[in-house]
Amino acid sequence: MSTKSLISYNLNGIRAALKKDFIPWLKANDFDMLFFQETKAQPEQIPVELFEELGYHHYWHSAVKKGYSSVGILSKVKPDQVIAGCGIERHDSEGRIIRADFGDITVINIYFPSGTSGEIRQEYKYEFLDDMFDWIHELRKTRPKIIVCGDYNIAHTENDIHNPKGNKNNSGFLPEERDWMTKWLNSGFTDAYRHLNPKKTEYSWWSYRANARANNKGWRIDYFSVTDNLVDQLVESNHIKEAIHSDHCAVYLKMKWN
Known about the structure:
globular; 7 helices; 6-stranded mixed β-sheet; Deoxyribonuclease I, Chain A
C-alpha cells in the first residue's frame, strides 16, 4: 500500500493565489492531490496549462455567478470518474461540490456556505448542512469509503477557535452548527486532523482584520473527515501555515492509499 499526500485549500480566488507564488509552492511540494474551494473563477479563466506542466489532471465546478464560490481538483492520479455537483440545483448553481472516485475511495470536495452575511444565508447554510448529511449518507450505501474535505465554515470545539466565549454568537461557531458537526462525526466519520492530533491547537483561517494571522487569532474550519473504515490508513495531518496565498492556509493529510 502506497501513501498519498492530500491538500484541502480555500484559495479565496485562484487568480489572486497565482499572483502570490502559488505555482512555485506547488512545484516545491509535489502533492499528489489538491482540493480547492473558492476558486472564484470559470474554467476558461484559469491558466490550466500551468498545472498540466506539473503533471496534474484538473477538474472544476464553477458557480453560475461569475467570480463566486466554485471548487476544483488537481490530481496526479487520474480519477476513475469526476462528478460536478450533488444533483440539488440550488447548491449546484453555487458551484460548491465536486466528487472524484479513485478505485474504492471517493473524495468529495465541498465549500460549505458561510452565514456571516445575515439570516437568509444562515438559513441556507442549515439547509445545506442537512442536505449534505443526507446525500453523503445515501452515497455511502454504494461507496462506503469516503473522504469529505473542504471549508466547512464551522469551528467544532473550543479548541478550534481562538476566542470561544467572544464568538459564541457568531456564524461558524453557533451551537446549532457545532451540534451538526458533532452529529456528523458521530455518524461514521472521523475528523482526520483531530484524530491524529487530539490535543493540538492549530487554525486554518484568520480574519484579515486586526493582524489576526500574525497574532494567530484564528479558526479551524477546514477539514478532512473520513469514513471510520479509513481511519487506520491515516498517517499525518497538519496545517501548512507558511502557505500564504489566501486568508486560509492549506490543510495537509498523508494517508495510506490502496
